[in-house]
Amino acid sequence: MLRVGVLVSGGGTNLQAIIDQVEDGRLTGVSLEVVISNNAGAYALERARQHNIPAVCVSPGDYPARVDFHRALMEKLEEYRLDLIVLAGYLVKIPPEMVARYPKQIINIHPSLIPSFCGVGYYGLRVHEAALARGVKVSGATVHYVDAGTDTGPILLQKAVEVKEGDTPQTLQRRIMEEAEWKLLPQAIQMIADSHNGKA
Ligand code: GRF
Asked: What is the pLDDT of residues 135-175, one digit of tens each?
């Protein structure tokens, strides 16, 4: 069984896609052990609570220095003995010691076809604003392993999504979520679970 922790900061629609697929049996060999957010008000934490998944807030603002926050986050992760950490809209920079502690055990979903529209400052609607400003006809989403950089780790899965005439950042974001993100992230977790559980 792959023990999975999900790190979130916002609404949690990607988390919900994972929860739904575990609960309806489409995603197998996975145990959702904890959802951790830097934001106590993140609706993603409410989604976890609604599904009886431990929902924990570890907020940088609760610690005197960033190093103390990093220590608290690492200690919380250790508690759950995780095999995979999923960043599902987690907007806090991952501490280097966390990347070192969990080599190829942290994945991230990014709402573009990396290497386009990614890196520092490209998150949420800003990604789609940049794609529309450039005039791309195709965008999409990427699941990649997390390394010490920002959106720079090895790519695991990608899915292209058509940009439509008249798209706004909001309509493009929604289409990419529905057609790509909510499919790719569970798919990536299943690949890793199958490998972990000896099924691949
Ligand atoms: C998604 O667009 C994801 O690609 C990006 O942050 C957003 C999170 O949305 N990393 P949600 O919290 O999963 O609804």
From this structure: 999 999 999 999 999 999 999 999 999 999 999 999 999 99
pLDDT digit string (tens) for 104-115?
999 999 999 999
Q: Which domain holds residue 54?
A: 2-196
The CB of 140 under 6 Å from ligand 1? The reply is: no
Domain of 78: which CATH number? 3.40.50.170
CA of 198 to the centre of ligand 1 (A): 30
Active site residues: 110
DSSP string, 117-178: S-STT--THHHHHHHHHHT-SEEEEEEEE--SSSS-SPEEEEEEEE--TT--HHHHHHHHII
Distance 89 CA to ligand 1 centre (A): 4
